[in-house]
Amino acid sequence: xxxxxxxxxxxxxxxxxxxxxxxxxxxxxxxxxxxxxxxxxxxxxxxxxxxxxxxxxxxxxxxxxxxxxxxxxxxxxxxxxxxxxxxxxxxxxxxxxxxxxxxxxxxxxxxxxxxxxxxxxxxxxxxxxxxxxxxxxxxxxxxxxxxxxxxxxxxxxxxxxxxxxxxxxxxxxxxxxxxxxxxxxxxxxxxxxxxxxxxxxxxxxxxxxxxxxxxxxxx
Length: 219
Prior knowledge:
Blueprint: H1 3-42, H2 47-61, H3 65-75, H4 85-110, H5 114-122, H6 127-157, H7 169-180, H8 183-218
């Protein structure tokens, strides 16, 4: 293991990591928003909307992420819809992650016992107060662990975007290997970088989970 070579490659790898973090942050944020909206539609009384969301979730979960990335980047231009490499990556990752976040949020909503609604009404809470003050904290607490698993998977799956030419962390490593033939150093280094980022995400998730658990622990 040549440490001097790794240190020399770090500036390029950090540029790739910056791109990885940008595309992951956007995809994760959008998927959380769309996931919550999708879960609301998934649990609505409108059968058409419910079935549309179910069809979307099943389609995305039943097809490989790599195929979805290729469809967005190579398929949509043939239909007259073009995006840059960066936005193609964001869209593909968001579409993939949203399907899983919908199910995570739906599971959270399902964890709220029906009797709690009656208790809220008995206490005089309005429907919006019941939704925000009662349902949301309970559902978020239940949905957080699976949602964070999807967040971590979204971050790691950003490596697939090297296949469409996005200059993210894995792309930079593979590109240097093509020139320097130092596969061991490069793959070992990006593994450490990915692990570090995942540990940071896991730490943040534990902090949020602890915060959400605090009111229940006090009771």
